[in-house]
Amino acid sequence: MATTTSQQVLLCPAELAYLHSSLSLTPPIRPDGRTPTHFRPLVAETDILPGTNGSARICFADGTEAIVGVKAEVEKTRGVEEGVEESEVREDEKEGRSEWVELTVEIPGVRDDDGGTAFLSAMLGEALLSDGGFVKRLWINRRWHWKLYLDILLISPPLSYPLPLLSLTTHLALLATRLPRLKSEGVEDPFFDDDWAAAPYLYPRDKKSGKALARPPVTLLVMAVGRNIIFDPAKEELAVADVALAVSVGEAAETGDNDMGGKGRKLRLLSVRTIDPPSRVTPPGVPNATNAAYGAAGTTQKQPEARMAEAEAVEGVWRAPRGGAKPLVMAALVQKTLERGGVADEVLDALEGVDLG
Amino acid sequence: MADRRRINGPAGATIPPIFDDGVDKKTASQKPTRSRPANAVRHTFLKTGVTPSASGSAYLEVEVPGKPGVSGLKLSCTVHGPRSLPRSSPFAPHIILTTHVKFAPFATKQRRGYLRDPTERDLGSHLETALRGAIIADRWPKSGVDIIVSIIEGDQDRETSKEQGDESWDMMNALSGCITVASAALADAGIDCVDTVAGGVAALVREEANNGVAKIVIDPVPSEHVKIEAACCVAYLPTRDEITNLWFKGDMPDDNMNTYMELVQQGIQASKFANRVLVQSISETVG
């Protein structure tokens, strides 16, 4: 874990204290001048890999870049008795299994059996699978299904915690994914149309506007510093976080009457995970009062940091946070993400604007 | 990564045969149901200091219903350290925490290999997050501690078929057990913590008997419920009223925020129960 989140935050205690206090102001001052809910600007494109069923690339302004390729294979469903002739299949009879999706994350310079990578891929997979409607889309008939391989590649070095980047890229790639059109009917072995132009999207689109009717989930990173809630933290900001959460949200189905008046869509919570903030492993600062170099008497020991551990906190001197976060703070982070017209909403809107093939 | 150092069995899974004991008996025992009230946890046994060679250790066992073929969670945890880091490693102002969660190969219906698979690594990351908040890490610069949890037996019911029991929900129970047992082992090793952290699970379940209305139960056993809609695992520090690790997943209905808050609150409640067992077991050792 520590390797991915905290890869060498090269900040001294004084810098950490400065960052922490400027992020705790109201309104917070972020090192890159963004507002607390402002996302990093990004460049996105889809359908970049002709050999895949769907692909996307996103490049964040800080130089991190990811590619996602989605490949689908037809697979026989296990545990279904053969030879049972059946009538119409009702819509609610369709069901998916979590093993129909395989998700791998590759981060350069990190071993593929690293805990942090396993954590990332579990988190991205969990969001997809929690949304029960997703695996249902892979159902072909009672005996066959699509097996979907999602390969997520970070192609730049991990300059910041790559979670939001990977999640957004996966979202776009899934939106652009097309599966060949099924020609066969009923339970017979599937037979597909070889015309790629006729292939329907995995997430169906509106015929006129070309907008997707449903959308895959997105996972956002949100952290709290003091009383402030900050979205999409950069590496330096994450280094002083009191608590960081990864929140996955999906779009709730519209319930016909759209008379809620307010703008924005209805969001559903799919998963929440606590991210181990790298702030816990940062070095503590030494106040002048106990620092021999500044004329503190009687402190000639070699390591003033060791003594600091037990002393009272001094304003403006960095100390790594101890303990956890209050339940109310955690709830506020989730609430703020889910809000109508909030950040998740804004991100989904922005992704809608990406030209999909 | 394939395990090349051992001779492993064939890749295809084999499941022990389950014999049909006759129709009437089967229907009676087909679906285990929850007999506890929604706000009660299963009884837990916790003992510290079971492994003499480790600096701290603990063993945790969760109550099993009297039914044959059903096993409860059994966990053993050892803590090695704090010990000095090797000379080659860079300076660290804090204790370096390494967590290692492993299912025994025979712990679940599906046999596990000797190498940790992604779900086990994921559990390890969760455990690390939960414990890092509790340990006072800056008292041991330049040192490391290894926390090894082995899951000897998982929460399993042989009667339920593999399709029915979705393993992903079992992971939450396993994690909450891991957190509690690791916290006991840390206390046994004498590593300073701000508080004893304990894990608790709460779930939103849909019952047939209840007209398909969802309700919240704590300490759920996945095989006892028709469908688990959502679940959350909380690592909680009771005296500070703080959460060190929160893991929620599931599909929430529309009025999600209130249900979510209630779920977390019940998770905290479950963790308080676990904490009581934890404190009692530690004070037995001390006293």
UniProtKB/TrEMBL annotation, chain A:
Q: Which residues form the signal peptide?
A: none
Q: Which residues form a coiled coil?
A: none
**GO CC: one term?**
nuclear exosome (RNase complex)
Record localization: Cytoplasm; Nucleus, Nucleolus
According to the UniProt entry, its GO molecular function terms are: mRNA 3'-UTR AU-rich region binding
Q: Which family does it belong to?
A: Belongs to the RNase PH family.
GO BP field = exonucleolytic trimming to generate mature 3'-end of 5.8S rRNA from tricistronic rRNA transcript (SSU-rRNA, 5.8S rRNA, LSU-rRNA); nuclear mRNA surveillance; nuclear polyadenylation-dependent rRNA catabolic process; rRNA catabolic process; TRAMP-dependent tRNA surveillance pathway; U1 snRNA 3'-end processing; U4 snRNA 3'-end processing; U5 snRNA 3'-end processing
Entry keyword Cytoplasm: yes
UniProt protein name: Ribosomal RNA-processing protein 42
- UniProt entry tagged with the keyword Cytoplasm: yes
Which keywords describe this protein according to UniProt? Cytoplasm, Exosome, Ribonucleoprotein, Ribosomal protein
Q: What organism, scientifically named, is this protein from?
A: Immersiella caudata
Q: Which InterPro entries match?
A: Exosome_comp_Rrp42_subfam, PNPase/RNase_PH_dom_sf, Ribosomal_Su5_D2-typ_SF
Domain of life from the UniProt record: Eukaryota
UniProtKB/TrEMBL annotation, chain B:
Protein known as: 3' exoribonuclease family, domain 1-domain-containing protein
Provide an example Pfam family for this protein: RNase_PH
- What residue stretches are annotated with the Exoribonuclease phosphorolytic domain? 41-191
- Signal peptide coordinates: none
Q: Does the keyword field hold Nucleus?
A: yes
Keywords carried by this UniProt record: Cytoplasm, Exosome, Nucleus, RNA-binding, rRNA processing
Natural source organism: Immersiella caudata
GO-annotated biological processes:
nuclear mRNA surveillance; poly(A)-dependent snoRNA 3'-end processing; rRNA catabolic process; rRNA processing; U4 snRNA 3'-end processing
Which InterPro entries does the UniProt entry name for this protein? ExoRNase_PH_dom1, ExoRNase_PH_dom2_sf, PNPase/RNase_PH_dom_sf, Ribosomal_Su5_D2-typ_SF, RNase_PH
A Gene Ontology molecular function term of the record: RNA binding
Q: Where in the cell is it found?
A: Cytoplasm; Nucleus
Q: Which family does it belong to?
A: Belongs to the RNase PH family.
- The UniProt annotation puts the region (Disordered) at 1-38
The cellular component terms of Gene Ontology attached to this UniProt record, alphabetical and capped at eight, are: cytoplasmic exosome (RNase complex); nuclear exosome (RNase complex); nucleolus
